[in-house]
Design a protein that fits this description.
Elements lengths: L2 E3 L3 H11 L5 H19 L5 E7 L4 E7 L3 E7 L6 H7 L4 E2 L1 E6 L6 E7 L8 E5 L2 E2 L3 H11 L5 E5 L2 E2 L1 H10 L4 E4 L1 E2 L2 E2 L5 E2 L5 H6 L2
Parallel strand pairs: 1-12, 4-5, 4-6, 4-8, 8-10, 9-11, 10-12, 11-13
Antiparallel strand pairs: 2-3, 6-7, 14-15
Helix pairs in contact: 1-2, 2-3
This protein binds uracil.
Uracil (URA) binds next to α6.
Length: 206
């Protein structure tokens, strides 16, 4: 598995806005959209393009179109906040949804909602989950998506904990992770430190 730590002054700026507890839900949503757009720039770097001829106002030249088809899969609930920039940026993207709940006794994540587009086989799956904490949810989401034989699976998250990276890597070494930060550790409640709190709560003002 490859961990892509996206280091860029704009990413650092918007990540700080997300981390700051004084940031309001409005500001949080705006910073979230911007940082996701920046992460998508990296997460789509290896998509293949198709070449075709176009006519500029002056002459004919080569044009390029995205050849790979992407299926974005936000994990409920916080992943919903990542869909907007994906729809804006990626041509021909389709969107599926996965809802997972954790058994507090066994810590095992199980599916309570799965709604996916048809024809995932051979496509590039992009799982959207802003916080990679223990890795339990991401691991389960990847397992579900692999049932549909995609060409590749990648995870876009804003912040990743070392524990989650390690767990996902052990279960699915082929999955690429794109993140703005590799944080220090999890606390006893499994929140990421220094982190930014509960992404869903901050995004939706709950
Ligand atoms: N989910 C969150 O929203 N925040 C964390 O820190 C960990 C999991």
């Amino acid at each position: 598995m490859t961990l892509h730590l996206v280091e860029h002054p704009l990413v650092a700026h918007y990540l700080t806005r997300l981390r700051d507890r004084e940031t309001t839900p409005d500001e949080f949503r705006e910073a979230s959209d911007k940082i996701i757009t920046l992460l998508l720039y990296e997460a789509t770097r290896d998509l293949r393009t198709r070449t075709y001829r176009i006519q500029t106002p002056l002459e004919e030249t080569n044009g390029y179109a995205i050849g790979d088809r992407v299926v974005a899969v936000p994990i409920l609930r916080a992943g919903l906040g990542l869909v907007g920039p994906v729809l804006e940026l990626l041509p021909h993207v389709t969107v599926g949804y996965i809802g997972l709940e954790r058994d507090e006794r066994t810590a095992v994540a199980s599916r309570y909602y799965v709604k996916l587009p048809p024809d995932i086989a051979g496509k590039a799956v992009m799982i959207l989950d802003p916080m990679l904490a223990t890795g339990g949810t991401a691991t389960k989401a990847v397992e579900i998506m692999k049932e549909y034989q995609p060409a590749s699976v990648r995870l876009v998250c804003v912040v990743a904990a070392p524990e989650g990276i390690q767990a996902l890597q052990a279960a699915h070494p082929d999955v690429q992770i794109f993140t703005a930060a590799r944080d220090r550790e999890l606390n006893v409640q499994k929140y990421i430190l220094p982190g930014l709190g509960d992404y869903g709560d901050r995004l939706f003002g709950t």
